[in-house]
Amino acid sequence: MSAHTGGGRRPYRNDRRAEAAAGTRAAILEAALRLFVAHGYAKVTIGDIARKAGTAVPTVYASTGGKSAILTVLINRGVDDPVVERTLEAVRTATDARAAVAAMAHGVRLDNERHLDIVQVMITAAAVEEQVEEQLRQVSTAYRQALGVLAERLAELGALRPGLSTERATDMLWFLLGLPSWRLFVAEHGWSWDETEQWLAQQAIAALLAEPKDG
Question: How many CB atoms lie within 10 A of CB 141?
């Protein structure tokens, strides 16, 4: 009876340990992000992160690894955000060119809005960490490829300006909807996210789409 009861409790104890470990990991990641944003990636130490998270340095290493590993986890949150695939699906199934542009502008706005802090940390960290520099390159490449889905859909709809290739259209979309534009207008110039989304979408429509035919 005693042995059976003890065995029955074991999964419960394991669940409690897993919950505690997940809570510790979440606290570490949140502490790291806040410190990276406030002080810059290069100046923050694992000791700083441990103190902010209310835990010990060995616990940080055991739970999340070193600084670059923590940053990788934070970066992957943005990369794996479900809004990315939802946006691409909306673009691929759009039957109206303006609606396709609007869907992409809204989707990348949401992704940037949710993860602007980590994007800014990643950009500054890339100057001191070769691994982060490569991650930034990969994120930028994936972002451009997503914008390329819009360029291809506009071409399929026959909506691109005459003579405008999908490659050139993707370049223009990166200029208008890529990472730098959202940081410039929102973080540096204080525009609201709604204002920025609306204006950038309008510029993309004006730059890429053919003039509507009369009649």
Answer: 10
Domain 2-65: what homologous superfamily? Homeodomain-like (1.10.10.60)
Look at residue 46 in the predicted model and tell me its pLDDT: 95
Alpha-carbon distance 15 to 2, whole Å? Answer: 21
Hey, what CATH topology would domain 75-208 get? Tetracycline Repressor; domain 2 (1.10.357)
Domain ranges of the chain: 2-65, 75-208
Q: Which token pair is 66?
A: 């070193």
Structure confidence by residue, pLDDT tens digits, 181-193: 999 999 999 999 9
- Per the listing, tokens 């340990």 go with 17
* Backbone torsions φ then ψ of 160, nearest 5 degrees: -70, 150
Reported as a single tens digit per residue, the pLDDT across 156-201 is 999 999 999 999 999 999 999 999 999 999 999 999 999 999 999 9
pTM of the entire predicted model: 0.81
